[in-house]
Amino acid sequence: MSKEMIEIRWHGRGGQGAKTASLLLAEAAFSTGKYIQGFPEYGPERMGAPITAYNRISDEKIRIHSNIYEPDYVVVVDETLLKDVDVTAGLKKEGAVVINSAKNPEELRSLLNGYEGSIYTVDARTISMDTLGKYFPNTPMLGAIAKVTNIMEEEELFKAMEESFQHKFATKPEVIEGNMEALKRAYKEVKGSER
Amino acid sequence: MALNLREAVKRPERFTGGHRLCAGCGASVTVRSVLRALKPEDKAVIGAATGCLEVSSCLYPYTAWKDSFIHNAFENVGATVSGAEAAYRVLKKKGKINDNYKFIAFGGDGGTYDIGLQSLSGAMERGHDMVYVCYDNGAYMNTGIQRSSATPKFANTTTSPAGKVVPGKQQFRKDLTQVMAGHHIPYVAQTAPFGNFNDIHAKAEKAIYTEGPAFLNVFTPCPRGWRYDTPKLMEIIKLAVETCYWPLYEIENGKWKLSYKPKKKLPIEEFLRPQGRFKHLFKPENQHLIEELQKEVDKRWEALLEKCEE
Amino acid sequence: MAIRERLSGNEAVATAMKQINPDVVAAFPITPSTEVPQYFSQFVANGSVDTEFVAVESEHSAMSACVGASAAGARVMTATSANGLALMWEILYIAASSRLPIVMPVINRALSAPINIHNDHSDSMGARDSGWIQLYSEDNQEAYDNIIQAIRIAEHKDVQLPVMVCMDGFIVSHAVENIELLETEKVKEFVGERELEDYLLNAERPVSMGPLDLPPHYFEHKRQQAEAMKNAKKVILEIAEEYEKLTGRKYGLFEEYKMEDAEVAIVVLNSTAGTAKEVVDELRENGVKAGLIKLRVFRPFPVDELKEALKDLKAVAVMDKADSFSAAGGPVFTEIRAALYDVEDRPEIVSYIYGLGGRDVRVDDIKKVYDDLKEIVETGKVESVYNYLGVKE
Amino acid sequence: MKDKKTPLGGNVSWKETTPGGIIYDAGNATRYKTGEWRSMKPVWNKDKCKQCMLCFPVCPDSSILVEDGKMTGIDYDHCKGCGVCVEACPFNVFDFVKEE
Fold it and tell me: Which positions, given as ranges, span the membrane (chain C) (predicted)?
């Protein structure tokens, strides 16, 4: 397997946009010339049900087509999942988990089944409410994971995402600015307890 | 202007002799009557469901069809012809085809009332410019006279045999014409090769030349399945109409119209008596079964009169 | 210049269909192929294709309408999966026997029961004797490329047969990956126009199609159909060569991965091949002479070519993502094993049925297969010919 | 290519037969004689005929021959002798006799 490949696993609930966020991240990475994979845990999405989505990002063509069992990073879009889902299962020690939470990272460690690696948190709820007036955690989480993985330069990310939003929200341009704001704030505000 | 018989006979024959339908088969009379309504300058694509008509008219290496013809399977002539019609529309739009084509699907009652109902319903609902013609001979004749949902109650068929305790088919027939009326397509009609053929010619013409989907249900006797002598074809049709067993009517853009009202409605017995499939009804102990049939015919006839505001 | 894009498998398929701009698409939604008619109907709604989109009421009618439209002279496509394909079954045979060049992406999914929407190959494998050409695709790129080539293969005068282009449901259909697209103009030029001689809407000469065909003629029609399938092999290669000139991407009847000096190899279809290539690379780094055959064309079955490619191996594992319930191995296994019958000192051949109903196929699963092959080579003994890989024992 | 023919007869090789069983010559069933099926035969008495044309549409075998809107005879190559025309005629123009 390519040494440069980064594998990311997303945990969210149906309807929160974890799948969309994984696709947007793939898209942003793609725009910088990377090879990407973005795919959901295959199945029908039901509102509220725990869902998983995946990203692979690499400088070389990606051939592997299995789920990700030993991710480099894990993103948790909904903090309440921590009590039911073993989100850090297989997560590499040298990797990191990024959680949507207003808490400090270390406050969550006890919920992570003895996970010893880095923990980051970002208050996606507040950011989303402030910037979009509604709770759409996926854009802030995207900003946070992009920052933590550092898979691309800040400006590159913002430029790529602006283009994506322009495309995605072609019919409602008024939400582009809010989304960009959410992305940037999360990028800045994500805080870590590095190991 | 409606096609009269004098004019109709001058039209080119689009269904030739040399097919292998039974001697005296009503299906070919139905087909010829419908095709006569095509203007000679118009071309046609004709589809047929698997059934007597198809296996007898297109038996490799011979075809009795002068127009392009396709058979696909038993239950899908509606979808098959709708595909051909879609192809025509797009190829015409692209300028690859110049001639005018009409699309006609033929199915027996098996391929129409039963196994092909879904495909028919879909094709009509989608609004294809085509005519679906059911030649209703009231059983699966091709496979040896098995009951269908178009088989009249008490008819003796090979899967609804009249026996010591069960007197033939146990259910009244489905009223498919009214099911099709429920699709609210531009034209639905019930007809038969009756009298001087004006009714079937006029309805076929309307069906073919009304834009959008149209459905014709055509009463089509089968001498073998109904067990009557072949020369009596036209008499059986007449009795079906005059007893109001098979009323002639149409629904044009939602408007119900009775096409023919018998001067004196004949008792259903008259229709039943010449047919061997009803022979068991004429045993003295079965008189009440005929009465039951009469009641149902009367009920349906009255309801139809009401719909047609007669 | 090729267009660099990122698309899901379903988007790739729909994009190929858009660029081909077929005359008629008749389709009914079924997971995981639903997105194909969805995307396509949006193309119709936006006017980016001229196609008549027939939103039929079932897959049976989808294939029936395709038959009607193709017989009428149109270039016709549809898409389906699993139970949808099963519902088409009767008409699959009719499309092939009537020699209608319909092209259909099949987004592979397990067949019921119990109902399961996930990937395996039980749908298309069951249709292997329906007379359709079958192409299999590792990823979105191959699905896209195969569909464009399929139009030419299907319509080739020596073939005139329908083509299924298979790819793995969800694993490929719903995964966004990099892809290189051709410019639409180039696709149009490559696929050209359907050349017609005999069709329902030929004003010069009306025809009758789908006759009752009794014992004096039926066998001859089948023999002629078999010849068309035989011809397809050559045509598939010719068109692949032409396509390579256009894109630089090379296609054959199957792909040989590190087979030159291989002693053990697996034969596999679709997306698992990609995962298996990773394993081959790792094994090679550890000095294991491992290889891989990814079958692209299953119908026609490249019997001679496979024999040649496999004959010098010591052990082969054939991986089937479908059970044939013959109690004697999967469908691809049976045919590969038969293909090697004439080979002197033929390799040991074992069957692995795997990944049914979307059971994920991991790197470790594939490693296990190669480990078993190594064991066979070392001991000269086959412990188990018929195996189920990744099932809970 | 307008006169493309479907090979008839029982001994056609698979190389010569038509793809998918397509039949090129529309209406070639006329070459198949169903007149042999007859056990009874309608005989038209021209002199009695009023040319009402009611026999024409009732014939299942398209065997009432018509020219310029007038009946001219019966196509015995295809008439199966069902007798529908005989019964349908209001003027009893036809005799219905045993086939010899």
Answer: none
Domain boundaries in chain B?
Answer: 5-307
Please report how many Cα atoms fall inside a 13 Å half-sphere around the Cα of residue A172, on the Cβ side.
Answer: 4
Note the helical H segments in chain D: 55-58, 84-88
Element (H, E) at B191: strand B187-191
Pairing status of strand B58-59 against strand B62-63:
antiparallel
CATH topology of domain D34-98: Alpha-Beta Plaits (3.30.70)
Is residue D1 pLDDT above 70, yes or no? Answer: no
Angle of helix B77-93 versus helix B117-126 axis, rounded to 10: 30
* Nearest by CB: A66 against C118, C282, C362: C362
What ipTM does the predicted assembly reach? 0.95
Q: How confident is the model at residue A48 (pLDDT cuts 50, 70, 90)?
A: confident
Q: What are the residues whose beta carbons fall under 8 Å from the beta carbon of A157, sequence distance 6 or more?
A: A28, A146, A183, A187
Q: Is A66 on the interface with C (CB under 8 A)?
A: yes
Query: Which of residues 29 through 48 in chain B touch D, CB cutoff 8 A?
Result: 29, 32-33, 36
User: Residues near B169 by Cβ (< 8 Å), separated by ≥ 6?
Assistant: B147, B151, B152, B153, B154, B155, B156, B157, B160
> For the segment D19-74, what is each residue's pLDDT rounded down to a tens digit?
999 999 999 999 999 999 999 999 999 999 999 999 999 999 999 999 999 999 99
- With a cut of 50, list the residues of chain B below it in pLDDT: none
Helices (H), D4-100: 55-58, 84-88
How far is B154 from B162, CA to CA, in rounded Å?
8
Average the pLDDT over C64-75 and give the result. 98
> CB A65 to CB C139 under 8 A?
yes
Q: Where are the domains of chain A?
A: 6-190
Spell out the domains of chain C, with CATH numbers in brackets: 3-247 (3.40.50.970), 254-389 (3.40.50.920)
Domain range summary for chain D, segments of one domain joined by +: 34-98
- Give the one of C204, C213, C217 whose C-beta lies nearest to D2's C-beta: C204
Residue A2 pLDDT grade (very low, low, confident, very high; cuts 50, 70, 90): very low
Nearest to A30 among C6, C138, C274 (CB): C6
C359: phi then psi, degrees, rounded to nearest 5: -55, 120
Match 């003629």 to its residue by tokens. C217
What class is the A6-190 domain? alpha beta
3-state secondary structure (DSSP) of residue B273:
coil
Q: Is the CATH number 3.40.50.970 carried by domain B5-307?
A: yes
- Which two tokens mark C212? 């009752």
What is the per-residue pLDDT for A1?
A: 44
Residue-wise pLDDT tens digits, C82-136: 999 999 999 999 999 999 999 999 999 999 999 999 999 999 999 999 999 999 9
